[in-house]
Amino acid sequence: MPIPFLASLYFDGYPPWLPDPYLLLKYSTAAATITLTKWYTGGRTNTAERNMHGRVVLVTGGTSGIGAVTAYELARRGAQVVLLTRLPPTDAFLVEYVDDLRARTGNNMIYAEQVDLADLYSVRQFATRWIDNAPPRRLDMIVLCAATMVPPGGKRVETAEGVEVTWMVNYLANFHLLGILSPAIRAQPFDRDVRIVIPTCSSYIASPKLDAEVESKDWTPQWAYSRSKLALMVFARAYQKHLDSYKRPDQLPMTARVVLVDPGLARTPGMRRWLSRGSLLGLLLYLIFYVFAWLFLKSPEMAAQSLLYAVMEGSLVSVPGGRLIKECMQMDCARKDVDDEEVAKKLWESSDKLIERVEKQQAVKRAKAKKEQEKREEEAKKAAQVEEIESLVGAITRSKAKSAKVTAKGSNEAPKKNGKKGKSAGNNAKYNASHCHPVFFTNKLRRPPFTILPGPESSPVVHGYVYQEGLRGVDKSAGPRL
Ligand SMILES: NC(=O)c1ccc[n+]([C@@H]2O[C@H](COP(=O)([O-])OP(=O)(O)OC[C@H]3O[C@@H](n4cnc5c(N)ncnc54)[C@H](OP(=O)(O)O)[C@@H]3O)[C@@H](O)[C@H]2O)c1
């Protein structure tokens, strides 16, 4: 097909149905440039593979961007993935996310544990729970993808514990987590290929020196981000030395490896927030100019390739740890202070001190809060008891009043039954209940009138009050005897 076409071009000249050759050249050059740019910015694809079946992997930042792709790829290969998220595992979004990941990967061994990296106490709680397990839990890999960036122009933000948030999430939380998990890493068998994968960013090159004193008015989000990444790299190399210096009981060398990874610039939620400056207008501009983001930034899938290389490349076990991986290749660091032992020592010590100070402060606060809570609970308990007693007393008083009312009502109704409606009912106020004892003072047994007048009508016998025995004596002047 191309040969006849070229022959016709040669013999018959430029065909009229083709567009202007100048335009054709222009458009094809543009298309080629875009394709080449996209190909170049897309980065390299990982070709390393490793059997991940049954390996236990802790992943931070596994719910978004590069971390989410890495978690998916690891789960797809059969790894047991534990997502360390700031949300509790009962959160509806997280439950759905984990269910979806399980369904997409066909792997049910995906779990979530709450670890808020902006909270040292939360990190400690998780890590101590992990190392408290006896026998030591299997741990093959830790992938530390979580990071935060204050959008450009944003103000300095502190965590609830009073640490600057970028420093805390990007560096200090990782320092704290790996510090506590160190015994769990060292306890792994010699033949287990343990890796600690730490993403960094090329912005570390522009970071000020770690020991440089910077006034808070000089603080910028870019400065904070690049400094946190530089600190992470210095710590990563120092941590590898810390692991290497451990003398195993079996006298075998340490096989755990720390690997630094620069994934390159990618269109992740974090990057979107950064580019849009966290504003709606910025988001609108991002969408309008999305074509540039598409052209110059990697997809999260492509950005995760270097991480997957760091996770799976077999040759990384046989080289010293602390290597930097970029575009699925080992690279040298662009800054000397990454390997400076003095800088690393100072950073380690100052981080330890900061954590100790903050944790002490927080422990005192928690103890105080706990005491207050206990006091509140005690008071609430007492109030509940008082209320219960009062309600009991009230119930007794009410029932007494009710029974008294019923008795009074019963007494009032008694004369009515005897048919002496008018007078008795009218004299209620003067009526004395003791005169009307139900047994001894019924109306039938009423005493006779006090004075009995002479005459047959007034005789007590006639009235039926006296049983007449007949005449009892000769003295007739004496009245009838009672
Ligand atoms: N994207 C890039 O262009 C680029 C370039 C160079 C290096 N990197 C590095 O690559 C890694 C991944 O970047 P990304 O852009 O994919 O990140 P991202 O999309 O911004 O995601 C950040 C992740 O960190 C988690 N996270 C943030 N704060 C947390 C906290 N306090 N506690 C627990 N988790 C927290 C987030 O959880 P939620 O989902 O709960 O918010 C989220 O899963 C980062 O280390 C980043 O520095 C990225």
Domains (count): 3
As laid out across the biggest beta sheet, the strand order is: 3-2-1-4-5-6-7-8
Count of strand segments? 8
**Contiguous runs where pLDDT drops below 50 for at least 5 residues:** 419-429, 470-474
Cα radius of gyration in angstroms: 47 Å
Largest sheet: 8 strands, mixed
Q: What portion of residues belong to β-strands?
A: 5-15%
N/C terminus separation: 156 Å
Q: How does the overall form come out from the CA principal axes?
A: extended
CATH class of the largest domain: Alpha Beta
CATH fold assignment of the largest domain: Rossmann fold
CATH architecture of the largest domain: 3-Layer(aba) Sandwich
Q: Could you spell the SSE succession in H and E letters?
A: HHEHEHEHEHEHEHHHHEEHH
Q: Percent helix among the residues?
A: 40-55%
Number of helices: 13
What structural class do helix, strand and pairing data support?
alpha/beta
Q: For the residues shown, what is the average pLDDT?
A: 87
Bound molecules: NADP nicotinamide-adenine-dinucleotide phosphate
CATH superfamily of the largest domain: NAD(P)-binding Rossmann-like Domain
Tell me what the structure shows.
- The chain crosses the membrane at residues 280-297.
- Residues 355-390 form a coiled coil.
- An eight-stranded mixed beta sheet has the order 3-2-1-4-5-6-7-8, sandwiched between helices.
- It is built from 13 helices and eight strands.
- Mean pLDDT is 87; it is low at 419-429 and 470-474.
- Strand 7 (323-326) and strand 8 (329-331) form a beta hairpin.
- It is α/β, with parallel strands linked by helices and 482 residues long.
- The radius of gyration is 47 Å and the shape is extended.
- It has helices at residues 2-12, 21-42, 65-76, 92-105, 120-131, 165-186, 221-244, 269-275, 280-288, 290-296, 300-312, 341-417, 421-426; strands spanning 56-60, 80-85, 110-114, 141-144, 195-199, 257-262, 323-326, 329-331.
- Helix 3 (65-76) crosses helix 11 and helix 5 packs parallel to helix 6 (165-186).
- It has three domains: 2-40; 43-263 and 298-339, NAD(P)-binding Rossmann-like Domain (Rossmann fold), CATH 3.40.50.720; 436-482, no CATH class.
- The structure holds NADP nicotinamide-adenine-dinucleotide phosphate (NAP).
- The site of NADP nicotinamide-adenine-dinucleotide phosphate (NAP) has 26 residues, from helix 3 and helix 8.
